[in-house]
């Protein structure tokens, strides 16, 4: 593996572990080693977004688009950051450009509707399928009324829990956006190339996800994490390879973004109401800000907050000390670390080694 790819992989792992500033530092090193890979900029943009550094995220997204004009992720991340900065017309223009790449992308449609609402514009109307003209077709008079009725009557679309996935070199991560799920109400079964999640939602309904995975995983090293906002499943890859798809080729031919359920599993009843995704996104964003992390996550959050609130000297000191000490020193005093290199200081009883690739 090239050095830049190794840095990129490390950065993705740091992102998965919610060490966003560390991820940014590693993404930056990867970019310095190879400025031609659009995904380096796209992923750093995501890390900047997590730290509310929207302007930097927009700049990275634009660089990614210059390198790969077909990167729908870059358009989405740029548009979301413009929306967060209340530049709704710019965000609308960005999402419209993204829609030209993928006309049926549900995430783009959601944000387009949000932008139009903020700008006081009507939502885009979907084109309805027209009923065939009877004058141009042979119609059985006994079935014509029934056929016409079935042609124009839409099938109600059931509510489905939204989920997304991404990957690092070692893990594939599935995020299910459901709030206030009790960890005791979740059952997860891992197979070599299968995955099943059964969760009782806060409204009493049952959610089932069952996937035939595109590649093998290590069941013993898979794990699930539940927060007030989501369910996050980390699947340990059996091989350190890039997954082109989450599901196997047989499932991909169905072309559905939702998990199919086997016949011997009772499917949960669809919700009778429509989820307002704009409201949900706002609630998630607000609750993420108010959520109180614990343990190592609390310490990382504290460092991130110090960095976000600090002046330029504080930020420079934190970055310089962390990078030069290989993560063993974190200083906010630029006068102390600015004039000389920061030595590696491993914890007591441990020895620092510089491993060769």
Characterise the protein shown here.
With 357 residues, the protein is α+β, with helices and mostly antiparallel strands. It has 3 domains: 2-119, Alpha Horseshoe (Serine Threonine Protein Phosphatase 5, Tetratricopeptide repeat); 163-236, Immunoglobulin-like, CATH 2.60.40; 294-356, no CATH class. The protein is 43% helix and 11% strand. The chain is built from 13 helices and 7 strands. The chain has helices spanning 3-16, 20-33, 38-50, 54-67, 72-84, 88-101, 106-118, 144-152, 249-252, 277-290, 295-309, 312-324, 334-337, and strands at 163-167, 171-176, 186-190, 194-200, 206-212, 223-226, 231-236. The strands form 2 sheets. It has a 4-stranded antiparallel beta sheet with strand order 1-2-7-6, covered by helices on one side. A 3-stranded antiparallel beta sheet has the order 3-4-5, with no helix packed on it. Helix 3 packs antiparallel against helix 4. It is globular. It starts with a helix and ends in a 20-residue tail after the last helix. The relative contact order is 0.08. Residues 122-159 are annotated as: Disordered. It holds the Pfam family CS.
Salient structural properties:
357 residues; alpha+beta; Serine Threonine Protein Phosphatase 5, Tetratricopeptide repeat; Immunoglobulin-like; 43% helix
């Amino acid at each position: 593996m090239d050095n830049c790819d190794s840095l990129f992989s490390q950065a993705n792992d740091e992102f998965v572990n919610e060490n966003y500033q560390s991820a940014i530092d590693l993404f930056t090193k990867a970019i310095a080693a190879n400025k031609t890979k659009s995904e380096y900029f796209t992923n750093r943009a995501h890390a900047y977004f997590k730290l509310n550094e929207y302007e930097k995220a927009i700049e990275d997204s634009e660089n990614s688009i210059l390198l790969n004009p077909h990167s729908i992720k870059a358009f989405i991340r740029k548009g979301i950051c413009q929306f967060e900065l209340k530049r709704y017309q710019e965000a609308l223009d960005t999402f419209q450009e993204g829609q030209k790449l993928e006309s049926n992308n549900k995430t783009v449609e959601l944000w387009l509707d949000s932008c139009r609402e903020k700008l006081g514009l009507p939502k885009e109307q979907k084109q309805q399928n027209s009923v065939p003209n009877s004058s141009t077709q042979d119609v059985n008079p006994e079935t014509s009324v029934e056929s016409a009725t079935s042609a124009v009557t839409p099938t109600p679309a059931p509510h489905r829990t939204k989920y997304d996935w991404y990957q690092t070199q070692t893990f594939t991560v599935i995020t299910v956006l459901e709030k206030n799920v009790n960890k005791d109400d979740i059952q997860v079964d891992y197979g070599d190339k299968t995955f099943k999640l059964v969760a009782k939602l806060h409204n009493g309904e049952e959610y089932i996800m069952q996937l035939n995975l595109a590649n093998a995983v290590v069941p013993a090293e898979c794990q699930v994490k539940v927060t007030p906002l989501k369910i996050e499943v980390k699947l340990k890859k059996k091989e350190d390879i890039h997954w082109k798809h989450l599901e196997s080729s047989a499932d991909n031919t169905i072309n559905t973004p939702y998990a199919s359920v086997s016949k011997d599993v009772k499917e949960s009843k669809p919700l009778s109401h429509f989820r307002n995704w704009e409201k949900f996104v706002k609630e998630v964003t607000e609750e993420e800000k108010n959520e109180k992390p614990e343990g190592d996550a609390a310490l990382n959050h504290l460092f991130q907050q110090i960095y976000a609130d600090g002046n330029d000297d504080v930020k420079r000191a934190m970055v310089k000390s962390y990078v030069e000490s290989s993560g063993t020193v974190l200083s906010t005093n630029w006068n102390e670390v600015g004039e000389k290199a920061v030595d590696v200081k491993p914890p007591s009883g441990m020895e620092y080694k510089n491993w060769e690739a």
